[in-house]
Amino acid sequence: MSTYKKDIPVFLTEAQIKSKVKEIAAEINKEFGDEEVTLIGTLKGSFVFFADLVRELKMPTRCEFLGVSSYGHQTTSSGEVKVTLDLSASINDKNVILIEDIVDTGLTLSFLLEYLNARKPRKLKTTAFLFKKVALKAKDLTIDYVGFEIPNRFVVGYGLDYAEHYRGLPYIGTLD
Ligand code: IMP
Ligand code: MG
Q1: For residue 77, which atom of ligand 1 is closest to its CA?
Q2: What's the pLDDT tens digit per position in 139-149?
Q3: What is the domain partition of the chain in residue ranges?
Q4: What is the CATH number assigned to the segment(s) 14-153?
Q5: How crowded is residue 122: how many other Cβ atoms within 10 Å of its Cβ?
Q6: What pTM does this model have?
Q7: Would the N or C end of the chain have less CB density within 10 A of its end CB?
């Protein structure tokens, strides 16, 4: 899979994505009302979902990003998580929502929850646009707002890459 493929089969259309983002935003708007929320996006994958979601939120928001190491060029999880870019501000006593592109084994999310909880936020919620429930290995993991539960396929687009390609695809496609 080292060459760039042009016609990636559609798995979720732009329209499906758009309406799901609105659904998630509505839940968050309902839960937090006018309270300020710090959004933390995990780079790089969540930047597109993050940008769509923040524009649907009605409360005051702060935008933060965490760089986490991903698969490299493999399509299976190593289970090793490394923080490559840290938060730029304190989240102590803040309402926080961690924004993930996709939860696969859940190892990244479970590591990040521990990492962020150690900084004593007031509330820590999680959202993942895609969730491969069958691939989940991490125990006792809560995802508060899930976009789509998907089968164990390798997907790209809408921020998600394979070997750094396809992040800019406006839809979600399958590569396997
Ligand atoms: P986890 O730790 O196994 O849950 O994996 C989380 C990370 O693996 C995600 O944030 C993605 O960067 C990457 N990942 C998992 N599945 C896919 C996929 O189907 N396409 C692209 N990246 C994926
Ligand atoms: Mg990610």
Answers
A1: 3
A2: 889 899 999 99
A3: 14-153
A4: 3.40.50.2020
A5: 12
A6: 0.94
A7: C
